[in-house]
Amino acid sequence: MKSERRGGKSFRNMAAKIAAIPMVVTATVVFLGCSIWTIVYSFTGSRLLPKLKWVGLDQYERLWGSRRWLISIENLAIYGILALTLSLLIGFMLAALLDQKIRFENTFRSILLYPFALSFIVTGLVWQWILNPEFGVQNIVRSLGFENFTFDPLYDANIVIYGILIAALWQSTGLVMCLMLAGLRSIDEDIWKASRVDGIPAWKTYLFIVIPMMRPVFITTLVIITSGIIKLYDLVVAQTGGGPGLASEVPAKYVYDMMFLSQNLGQGFAASTMMLVAVVVIIIPWAYLEFGGKKHG
């Protein structure tokens, strides 16, 4: 009887594996094939069309000697650090509040998650209007009598990246909240009861008990947020187009401009390869923490 059950279970698993083969093969061929193709042609002098004209590391030397590329890396670093920190902090705080079984929880959860359903282009256009000094926040506040009030981050080269950050947090924080809320709901209620009996403050329970138990959730959330940070493009194009000047330039926009506007495929391939390296640097530690740690354990 047991052998029959095992055989049936193995058959079901085998059927699922066979059904997944086309998807796995397609994803592997497309991802690996395109990635290898891009890396190979990043060592060529391709311009309008791909050509196997080897130039060695010239494209990478030109890339890292480009002021525009260095500015895009600096902008992405500022944006990335703030977006990662604030989205985790705000998302966790919202999740902790909703976890208190408040009234109309489903309504609040839907409202907070709604921005994530919008595309980045729509979000960028909405916040471009909100932050426009002519008819946005600045104009509304001035109409209330505060004539000297100034708030035009998208038109100030020194703070334009923070204007983009505001839109990004508005859209992504809801997703982080849902992930964190799912993690909090997985915590055994007995832990909270024991902490209350022992008189442990709620903040200590979160900091020393709950958050360490939510490690897998935090790791997954970090990977999702970081991958979104690296490929930042839509918000920048919709809000500023990379301006003023190069103040909001980012690597993904650099790649697009090199490949389709400047018709310099080799340089675009080199820049996209560096972005791929950044993603790999994130994925490998995540894979080790998720799978390697469990295996060793």
From TrEMBL:
Keywords: Cell membrane, Membrane, Transmembrane, Transmembrane helix, Transport. The keyword Nucleus does not apply. Coiled coil: none annotated. It comes from the Bacteria. It is found in: Cell membrane. Residues 73-288 form the ABC transmembrane type-1 domain. GO terms for cellular component: plasma membrane. Pfam families: BPD_transp_1. InterPro entries: ABC_transporter_permease (IPR051393), MetI-like (IPR000515), MetI-like_sf (IPR035906). The keyword Nucleotide-binding does not apply. One of its GO terms (biological process) is transmembrane transport. It is a multi-pass membrane protein. The chain crosses the membrane at residues 20-43, 76-99, 111-130, 159-184, 205-230, 268-289. Belongs to the binding-protein-dependent transport system permease family. This is Lactose transport system permease protein LacF. It comes from Granulosicoccus antarcticus IMCC3135. The gene is lacF_6.
